[in-house]
Automatic annotation (TrEMBL):
Swiss-Prot/TrEMBL keywords: Metal-binding
GO molecular function: metal ion binding
Keyword Metal-binding assigned: yes
Listed InterPro entries: Fosfomycin_Res_Enzymes, Glyas_Bleomycin-R_OHBP_Dase, Glyas_Fos-R_dOase_dom, VOC_core, YwkD-like_dom
Organism superkingdom: Bacteria
Domain VOC residue range list: 5-127
Species this chain originates from: Paenibacillus phyllosphaerae
Name recorded for this polypeptide: Glyoxylase I family protein
CDD domains, per database record: VOC_Bs_YwkD_like
Pfam families documented for this protein: Glyoxalase
Amino acid sequence: MKLNHLHHVAIICSDYEVSKRFYVEILGLPIIQETYRAERDSYKLDLHIGQSQIELFSFPNSPKRPSYPEARGLRHLAFEVDDMDETIQELTTHGINVEPVRVDETTGKRFTFFSDPDELPIELYEK
């Protein structure tokens, strides 16, 4: 078996317009395609990131997923950034709280976390 690369990550949000604004306007991810599926009363927004995509879904009354204490399963979404300080400054101008920067003991690289509108943990990892 040969896996080529990560194709996409799927995220289910509680408020489609709030999450769309967050991922498109604040994080700056370009829209590939937006689809409304009337039979499911659901939006699907495909966003471009590197060689991959984020699929942002809305479903009525979707249950909240526990994040703290850390639950079993996928832990977080991580984005590589060129300049940690500049990225943090941009996020804070939008009122987004960012955790203190830490250093990865293995790689020596700086990283930090913040949350999307549904409290999904997002990591920034400096190149």
